[in-house]
Amino acid sequence: MLTAKTKTGKTLCLGYDYKKETLFALRKKEEFICPDCGESVVLKLGDQRIFHFAHKQGSTCRVIYENESYEHLEGKRQLFQWLIRQKVPSVLEYYDREIQQRPDILFRHNGKKYALEYQCSTLPEHVFTKRTKTYLENDYIPLWIIAASHIHPKRNETLSLSNFHYSFIRSSSTGILYIPAYCPVKHLFQLVESITPFSIKNTFAHQSYFPSDKIDLDALLEPNPVKKIQVTLSNWNTENERYILNRVLHPQSDQKMLLREMYSHGINPFLLPPEIGLPVTHSVLIQTPPIIWQMYIFLDVLANKKPNDELTIQEISSHFNKRIQRNNIKLRALPQVADIKPILPVIEYLQTLQSLGILTRKGSLVFQVQRKLILPKSNREREEIKRLFLQKNNMLLSKNK
Ligand SMILES: [Zn+2]
Hints:
Blueprint: E1 3-6, E2 11-13, H1 20-29, E3 32-33, E4 40-44, E5 52-55, H2 70-85, E6 90-92, E7 105-109, E8 112-119, H3 125-137, E9 140-147, E10 158-160, H4 163-166, E11 170-171, E12 177-183, E13 188-197, E14 202-211, H5 217-221, H6 233-249, H7 253-264, H8 290-300, E15 310-312, H9 313-325, H10 344-355, E16 359-363, E17 366-369, H11 379-393, H12 396-400
The structure holds zinc ion.
Zinc ion binds near residues 34, 36, 55, 61 and 63.
């Protein structure tokens, strides 16, 4: 830990820059105590690790700081310094007795109270959710920042993200969803934006990097929208085909049921129309991959409609909710994003079908079918349809934004 009290009640916060000699002199004349448990703590001034306080062996303090990694100590110290350089009122390791939580940094900004948590080790999902909920219920805005070492880019602007990673997704006031990350070794902020998953764990995403002296708090809380979504339709299509192949060859039990439903509608999983499984801006709210949830929308609604038939958001929404109840479609747990409704990506999908000329809009809650989706009958036909679709719609993604 980086903060302790002296016997006379003064606070010593190592988040500020102290010279080593000053601290040596202080250590000679002062005794330090843990602000939480009141036990005495030792000021460690080694060369290997950054200066910090440590409880004595056998301590029963509830605040277990002793396993704090170098990355965590150094990261929260740098984030604290980054805030105070901007004159943001901040307290390092502030302990809120009422809720018994200690955010790494408490700060106030634009009249609001923030709890910053810099997370280097993985936390169980229920702990993450509970802490976040407690902050929200007590008028804190949580700001979870993940250690950048947890993020591993893969091929073609794709990333593999676990539920732990997804918990860090926050929303700007304008609804931009992103994961903030920080690397104390490079003094570098990293924002993962345009998160567009194509399977439960794998996603397209855009990453922006900002040296800590080039980004201020406002830019971290309200990032600019990424100008162009990085995923091209053909890359997207390739990943979707890979996913389908995998699922058909190795289906799990719920996918077996979906395959049965598809076969009973005469749909061959290898001959899908390209309009099923499209990327939409808020698809990250749904854990089930787009190709699966959009297939359910097709089976439940679109397949049964003829040109000129109407379809209402209410009708779609009721089918969507039934699929959620049956566990065919699973939503993603995003503890920091409670105010965006999961029907949003579904509406975005209908809007995409509208821009493709499949649907037209009849009113704020009503669409009308223009033409049916064409189910290819052979691989050759499918390849031809796909080629034309990609040629015609490569701009679709940027328009959809
Ligand atoms: Zn203690």
